[in-house]
């Protein structure tokens, strides 16, 4: 029978073993059972967000009424339909014919940092791709869904802005910063986050004396700029930026303190830099 978990503030390591020990219900009529989940890391790389070795969490499982989660989802959808869709029928009718978003947003897959919720994007405003650690692979690397999204949004949808959004306490960056040497060939996570290797190296060069958490915070921001620099390595992106029809932006969402830092790539200033030495930025602001 399918079990649905209601979990708050639990993060999982790349590889883990799951042990569960059930306690007896309070009474024969009780439907819910308490289960202890002991997460034990099986690899050296911590979390997506933190180590889970020897930590025990209490999780409530409903094994009989397995529709609760989707009942809540149903109510949210019906509220959207009533208050958003029905009140904006003309807008959604136009979206049925075509989309013309102004933004391509590259954000992290982390459940705590949904860009539409944080920045208020409405249907049709932002073409969005989310991956672990909001990374942009180099133009020369093999095909990925992120590169497909870049090609489609820039060359077919003609977006005017690309916004790369990083965030605080990023588990993907923590995994990257925790790696020793080359990625394990059996780890999808390690083989993906190594995309941000240059950000890790630049962080280690200037912040190796800092506490690990502060190193990760530094790398979270450095990774955004390295991704922006990689975007300029795509010929059709660089051409549009040079002609002024496309702008590149970085954003950093600190969800702990609820602040958002935003900046724009200074293309002319970046051209004067030695290749691989970073980008110039302008119009930096904190919201």
From TrEMBL:
InterPro entries in the cross-refs: Beta_CA_cladeB, Carbonic_anhydrase, Carbonic_anhydrase_CS, Carbonic_anhydrase_sf
A Pfam family of this chain: Pro_CA
Enzyme class: lyase
GO terms, molecular function: carbonate dehydratase activity; zinc ion binding
SMART domains: Pro_CA
Membrane-crossing residue ranges in chain numbering: none
Cofactors that this protein relies on: Zn(2+)
Keyword vocabulary terms for this entry: Lyase, Metal-binding, S-nitrosylation, Zinc
Annotated EC: 4.2.1.1
Biological processes, Gene Ontology terms: carbon utilization
Cofactor note: Binds 1 zinc ion per subunit.
Residues reported to bind Zn(2+): 108, 110, 167, 170
Catalytic activity entry: hydrogencarbonate + H(+) = CO2 + H2O
CDD domains per UniProt: beta_CA_cladeB
Family in the record: Belongs to the beta-class carbonic anhydrase family.
Main function: Reversible hydration of carbon dioxide.
PANTHER family: BETA CARBONIC ANHYDRASE 5, CHLOROPLASTIC, CARBONIC ANHYDRASE
Annotated protein name in UniProt: Carbonic anhydrase
């Amino acid at each position: 029978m399918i079990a649905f978990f209601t979990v708050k503030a639990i993060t999982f390591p790349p590889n883990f073993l799951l042990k569960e020990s059930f306690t007896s219900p309070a009474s024969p009529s009780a439907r819910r059972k308490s289960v202890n989940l002991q997460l034990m890391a099986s690899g050296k790389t911590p979390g997506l967000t933190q180590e889970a070795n020897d930590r025990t969490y209490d999780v409530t499982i409903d094994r009989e009424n397995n529709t609760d989660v989707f009942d809540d989802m149903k109510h949210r959808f019906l509220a959207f339909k009533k208050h958003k869709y029905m009140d904006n029928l003309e807008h959604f009718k136009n979206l049925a014919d075509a989309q013309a978003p102004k933004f391509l947003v590259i954000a992290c897959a982390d459940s705590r940092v949904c860009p539409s919720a944080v920045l208020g994007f409405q249907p049709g405003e932002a073409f969005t791709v989310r991956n672990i650690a909001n990374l942009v692979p180099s133009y020369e690397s093999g095909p990925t869904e992120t590169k497909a999204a870049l090609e489609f949004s820039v060359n077919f949808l003609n977006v005017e802005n690309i916004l790369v959004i990083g965030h605080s306490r990023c588990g993907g960056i923590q995994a990257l910063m925790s790696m020793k040497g080359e990625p394990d060939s059996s780890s999808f996570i390690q083989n993906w986050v190594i995309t941000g290797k240059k950000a890790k190296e630049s962080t280690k060069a200037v912040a190796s004396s800092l506490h690990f958490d502060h190193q990760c915070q530094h790398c979270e921001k450095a990774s955004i700029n390295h991704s922006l620099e990689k975007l300029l390595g795509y010929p059709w992106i660089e051409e549009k930026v040079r002609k002024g029809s496309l702008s590149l932006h970085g954003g950093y969402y600190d969800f702990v303190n609820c602040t958002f830092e935003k900046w724009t790539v200074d293309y002319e200033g970046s051209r004067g830099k030695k290749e691989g030495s970073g980008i110039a930025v302008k119009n930096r602001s904190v919201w």
